[in-house]
Each structure stands twice: as structure tokens, then as C-alpha cells.
Design brief:
This protein is mostly helical and 499 residues long. The protein folds into two domains: 251 residues, MetI-like (MetI-like fold), CATH 1.10.3720; 220 residues, MetI-like (MetI-like fold). The chain has 21 helices and no strands. The radius of gyration is 24 Å and the shape is globular. This is Binding-protein-dependent transport system inner membrane protein. InterPro entries: MetI-like_sf (IPR035906). It comes from Alloalcanivorax venustensis ISO4.
């Protein structure tokens, strides 16, 4: 006997139940999180940072032009390589092995790729380019593959049967997704500029390297200038990024920082066959010793790292949801006036343009090391992204002429109609929040990234590999649960670049 399709009422009840359980998990995470402010006088430090932001010093940083050029070069080359590889993988997206491989490489953050690659390629252009290209290849494969799956099959079916498969693809399928692919690649280049800057925190000569140095030494005016320069790059992207100029930009990036590997094959072989091999196996130990080694690693690092990553991620997810619900009316045309919407748009642009890694770094300086800086950073950045997407979706709503105003309009007219999309955006970003949560450990927060960074510093790369695999497993698990929940609740983010 066929089961009846779910009605709107039962789906809405599912949305409420899911929101309630996620909210409860977030509250429990807040209760378990370390929220201590260890800075003696955070107000005074915040004032110093604020004054530095108001008085940027653009002339203090030596080598600023070179750092800016490196940031651009890494981003352009990484996106070009990642998009090409991702497009090829997307052609085979129907194969389970391709899906699994793409999911695995994109689950590893650019900084973790950089830490691993640095052991073979050093502080080189190749490290920066591959650190961006590898995870982006997985992301592009997923997005392009979904574009192909959702494209109308009718044009390909209408072609004559004697048309070769390659011709069928270029004439009947590619034109349908080309505009979406171009738009998404431009969005991903914006993300790559931020990722390229962040790579400076592990020593690569990008804007982030100078920014970290300036803020750690208390030169907040100098750090503010570097941050504003990154804003300028990202916010003006649509004006200077033209399709006809892309070959010129890419050639300039290649000539400025050619990704040449100056190492040897022997170095690569030794790293893979010796450094990444678990210590018991290198010392001719048996399976029993390997299990003891893994058990010790789990109890001392993996277990605590996974727990802290989950706690911080769930607390950040709750804060993200609350901030997005509060912030989206600032940008929505259904509320306020032109001045308030302009101010709201500016606030959201600043928050979503500032990488969460940078925000966490600033809050660590002002509040001291705890989970609180990470929760605030992830909540503000991702909350602004979801608020922006929700506000954009509200532009398609039409209200009655006699609809209420103010809080009643928000609670009874707008939010019930937007909530499914808001919840879809939130669940889609959950895996990304967890991915970023893990990497915040490089700043000293005790998530999985903290133990990964420590193992690299100690040259225990066998531990590094196992910890990164634990990060991949956690991210894939959260992603699978999020996809299952979105499917169960019939939620979709189709057409919105939330990846």
C-alpha cells in the first residue's frame, strides 16, 4: 500500500522538531564549552584594536606589494587548477568512487593541506597553489556535477543518435550549465582570495603573514591596513574580474610566482613511505602494537579533539541561527527604509567578507584563548552569510497591502514563509562550520586542528595523518547527517552559492 505524501502541516512540524533538537544540542554545547575570558582587561585591548581600525597605516608594512601579488597569484592559480580538475571529475559524478574522493579532499581545510604539502614542497608557490587547488577540486566537482544532474536532458535526447558522446556533451549539455559554472567560479575566486590570505598564518608570504605579525605585535593600525586591502580586493572583484582578462591574470600569476617544485622525488617518497607510516609499523611492531598506539592517540588527542570540535561547532551553529534571524531584516526590502537597508547591507558585507579565521584571531587577542573567540567568529561570519541569502530570498515575497508592520510582519508574515529556506541554508553550512571549527585549533583552541598543528611542530607526521583522517571522518559524518535531514524535511538550497 502506497503511503500518502507528507502534507505541509506534517513538514512544518518536522521543521519545528528539527529546530528544537538542534537548538537543544546547541544549548548543551554552550553549557559544555569553555567560555572563559582570560584577558585581564579585554575592554582596553578592544579599544586599542578599535583605534587601530580607525587609523590604518598603509605605509608601515614592508613588502606589501609582494604579499598582495602572492595572494592574487596563489588564488588565481589554485582556482584555475581546481576548476579544471573539478570539471573533469564532474563528468564522472555518477560514479560512487568519484563522489567519495571529492568529498574526502574537500573535507580537508586549505591550511591542513598546506601543513602537509610544506613538508615536501617547502614554503613555495607550489604549496600555496596546491593547498587551494586540492580542496577546491572536490568542491568544484560536487557543484559542477550537481549542475549537470539538474540540467534539462531534453536537448541531448533530441540530438540524432549518431552524434558522438563528446559532441552531445558540448552541444546539448554544456551550454545549459555554462552560465552557472562561470558565476560559481567567480564566487569561488572570492573565497580563494580569503583562503590565500589565511595561508600566511602557516608561513606562506601572503597578506595573512604580515597581518598576523602586525596584530601579534600590537601594531593594530598596520594590521587594519592589511585587512582593508583584503576587503578592497574582494569587494571590487566584480569590477576588475572580466572573462576576457582572465587569461591575462592567469599568465601574470604564473610569471610572478611559477609553481615550480625544487625538491626531489626522493623527498616525496620518503615522506609518503616513512614519515606518514605509523610509528609501530616503522619499528617492525605488530598489529597489537598498532592498536595500542591508536588507542593512546585516541584517548590523548583524537577523542578530546573530536569532542571539543563538536562542542564548538554546535555552539557556533546555534549562534549562527540566532544572528541570521536577527540580521536578515536589516537587508530585506520588506523591512526598514533605504538608509537602514544600506547600513544593514554594509554590516553583512563586512562580516561575511572577513574570514572566520581572521575574526577568531582578533577575538583571541582581545579575549584570550578559549572557545569563546571561535564561537563568536563562526557565528558572526556564517550568520551574516545566511542572513544575506535569506534576505535575498525575501525579495521574491509579495505581501498583502494590509499586512502588519514591524514585529508582527516579521513573526507572522515573513518568517514562516522564509523559514524552510533559512533552515536549508543553516543545515547546508553546518558541515562548513565543522570544517572551519577544526582548523581554528591552529590558533590555540583545543579542537582537532590544535593537535594537528602540534604533531606537525613535533615532526610526528604519522599522527598528523591519523588526526586529519579523523577530521575528514567527522566532517563527512556531519555532512551525511545534514544531507539526510535536509532530504527528510524536503529542504533545498538549489540556485544559491552556499558552499
Amino acid at each position: 500500500m502506497n503511503r500518502p505524501a507528507p502534507t505541509f502541516t506534517t513538514t512544518a512540524a518536522g521543521w519545528r522538531r528539527a529546530s528544537g533538537w538542534l537548538g537543544l544540542a546547541g544549548l548543551i554545547a554552550f553549557a559544555c564549552a569553555d567560555l572563559e575570558v582570560t584577558r585581564g582587561d579585554p575592554g582596553e585591548e578592544m579599544m586599542r584594536v578599535g583605534l587601530g581600525l580607525l587609523r590604518p597605516d598603509f605605509l608601515a608594512t614592508e613588502g606589501l606589494g609582494r604579499a598582495l601579488a602572492n595572494t592574487l597569484a596563489f588564488a588565481f592559480q589554485g582556482v584555475a587548477l581546481g576548476a579544471a580538475a573539478g570539471f573533469l571529475l564532474a563528468l564522472f559524478w555518477h560514479r560512487r568512487a568519484v563522489r567519495a574522493g571529492a568529498a574526502s579532499v574537500r573535507a580537508v581545510h586549505e591550511l591542513f593541506w598546506g601543513l602537509l604539502l610544506m613538508q615536501v614542497t617547502g614554503l613555495s608557490t607550489l604549496t600555496g597553489v596546491l593547498a587551494i587547488a586540492l580542496p577546491y577540486a572536490g568542491i568544484f566537482a560536487k557543484v559542477f556535477g550537481e549542475f549537470l544532474e539538474e540540467a534539462d536532458p531534453a536537448p541531448a535526447v533530441a540530438l540524432p543518435d549518431d552524434r558522438r558522446r563528446l559532441g552531445r556533451f558540448f552541444y546539448a549539455r554544456l551550454p545549459l550549465i555554462w552560465a552557472s559554472c562561470k558565476a560559481y567560479t567567480g564566487y569561488r575566486l572570492e573565497c580563494a582570495l580569503r583562503a590565500s590570505a589565511i595561508l600566511g598564518f602557516i608561513g606562506l608570504p601572503t597578506l595573512g603573514f604580515h597581518l598576523e605579525t602586525a596584530f601579534r605585535e600590537g601594531h593594530y593600525g598596520e594590521g587594519a591596513a592589511l585587512l582593508y586591502l583584503l576587503f578592497l580586493l574582494v569587494l571590487t572583484l566584480r569590477f576588475w574580474l572580466r572573462p576576457l582578462l582572465l587569461p591575462v591574470y592567469l599568465l601574470a600569476a604564473l610569471s610572478w610566482a611559477p609553481p615550480v617544485w625544487t625538491g626531489s622525488l626522493q623527498t616525496l617518497v620518503r615522506f609518503v613511505t616513512e614519515d606518514l607510516v605509523p610509528a609501530p609499523l616503522k619499528n617492525d611492531g605488530g598489529v597489537a602494537e598498532l592498536w595500542v598506539w591508536l588507542g593512546t592517540l585516541w584517548s590523548e588527542q583524537i577523542g578530546p579533539g573530536v569532542w571539543h570540535t563538536l562542542v564548538l561547532g554546535l555552539a557556533a551553529l546555534l549562534l549562527t541561527a540566532l544572528l541570521a534571524l536577527v540580521l536578515f531584516p536589516l537587508r530585506s526590502p520588506l523591512f526598514g527604509n533605504r538608509v537602514s537597508r544600506g547600513l544593514g547591507h554594509f554590516i553583512l558585507v563586512v562580516l561575511r567578507t572577513t574570514p572566520e579565521f581572521f575574526l577568531a584571531f582578533f577575538f583571541l587577542i582581545m579575549l584570550g584563548p578559549s572557545m569563546l573567540p571561535g564561537i563568536l567568529a563562526l557565528g558572526l561570519h556564517t550568520g551574516a552569510i545566511i542572513a544575506h541569502l535569506t534576505a535575498r530570498f525575501s525579495e521574491g515575497l509579495t505581501l498583502r497591502d494590509d499586512s502588519p508592520r514591524g514585529l508582527n510582519r516579521y513573526a507572522f508574515e515573513v518568517l514562516p514563509r522564509l523559514y524552510p529556506n533559512f533552515l536549508a541554508f543553516l543545515l547546508y553550512r553546518w558541515e562548513i562550520i565543522m570544517r572551519e571549527t577544526a582548523v581554528l585549533g591552529i590558533l590555540g583552541i583545543h579542537t582537532l586542528g590544535f593537535y594537528i598543528d602540534s604533531s606537525v611542530a613535533e615532526f610526528r607526521f604519522d599522527r598528523t595523518l591519523v588526526l586529519i583522517l579523523a577530521t575528514v571522518g567527522l566532517n563527512l559524518g556531519v555532512d551525511a547527517f545534514s544531507r539526510w535531514l535536509r532530504g527528510r524535511l524536503r529542504l533545498s538550497t538549489r540556485g544559491q552559492p552556499v558552499e
